[in-house]
Design goal:
Distance between the termini: 20 Å
Shape: elongated
Radius of gyration: 24 Å
Structural class: alpha+beta
Organism: Rhamnusium bicolor
Helix content: 10-25%
Number of helices: 1
Protein name: Transposase
Length: 69
């Protein structure tokens, strides 16, 4: 018996009480692209925004709606 099955049995958790959650980070500031340059160039750069932007965490929660035997 694995740890998950043991916890489910010990706490009498019903399958309707199990959810799937995913967390992602979003930002409003663009990520600068990769820049390729010839070897030996002294000045290589890319233009990108200097703004600070907003960092947001999004959490999505889903429930299994049907039962597979």
């Amino acid at each position: 018996m694995d740890v998950l099955e043991q916890v489910i049995d010990e706490n009498k958790i019903d399958k309707t009480m199990i959810f799937n959650m995913d967390e992602s980070a979003l930002t409003t500031v663009q990520v600068p692209p990769k820049v390729f340059a010839q070897k030996g160039n002294k000045q290589v750069g890319a233009i990108t925004s200097a703004e600070r932007g907003i960092h947001t965490t999004v959490v999505v929660l889903g429930e299994r709606m049907f039962h597979h035997p």
